[in-house]
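Hi V.,

You were right to ask for the full record rather than a summary. Here it is.
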Amino acid sequence: MHRTVVVENLAGASGSIAASKLLTRGTSGDSVLFGSPTELVMAPATLKAVKYKPSDFRLVTLISKPPLGVYVRGDLPANSIDELVAYAKSNKERPLNYGSVGIGSVYHLAGDALVKGMGVNMTHVPYRGATPLLQDLMGGQLDLAFFPVDGNLAKMTSGGKMRVIGIAGPARSPLFPNAGTFAESTSLQKFTTVDVWGGIFVSKTTSESAVQTLHRAAQAAMVEPETRKALELAAGVPLMPAMSLDQLAAFYRTETARYQEAAKRANLEPN
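Predicted structure:
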């Protein structure tokens, strides 16, 4: 698009601060949001202060859909899902804790599903963003958390202060080849949770011409070899295949319904 891009990182309130700000930026398409289910679907479902709806946003392009991994503090005495389950069940007097970037976030839903699957109590610790969560996890104050299996987080495990012991996906990740999938375990073979994905969104009021321009530009950028390589390195998985705007709308509707149903199963209500 041959334009200067300013990146603004806005953490807090499960990402709803950033999402809300996008909706105040007009209809020209000059502002976009790199969004995920946490801020777009789960924040309005779990936070009374959030006034927008998932339908207030339009998906312009889908970038990645990495699996979730179980990240644990470096000295947690468990190297697999089965060892984690055994450790949690043998230490019920000292329940493990798990972190998320906020109540109702993707990682909260995954943690809640893990608690129910294991049949033990664990304490949920919501954080104001990923940075303080990861600091506590690597500092040993937090036992575990679900996060995407991606290149950026893989670099953070190199020092041994946190590790990945399980993959909530259909196959092992080349980033963590020693971490087995839940399906490979004996204790939680049937464990499932919601998927995590990331894409570029605009306000639904954005003009159709601006949406078309952004969509074409995003698709063109993602087939450039250097751009694609950088994005796949960061995501840790191949990029999602190109979709038309109609296909993207259908994907977003389906995922919104899936997450809303997951929130109901977890008994999450706005607070």
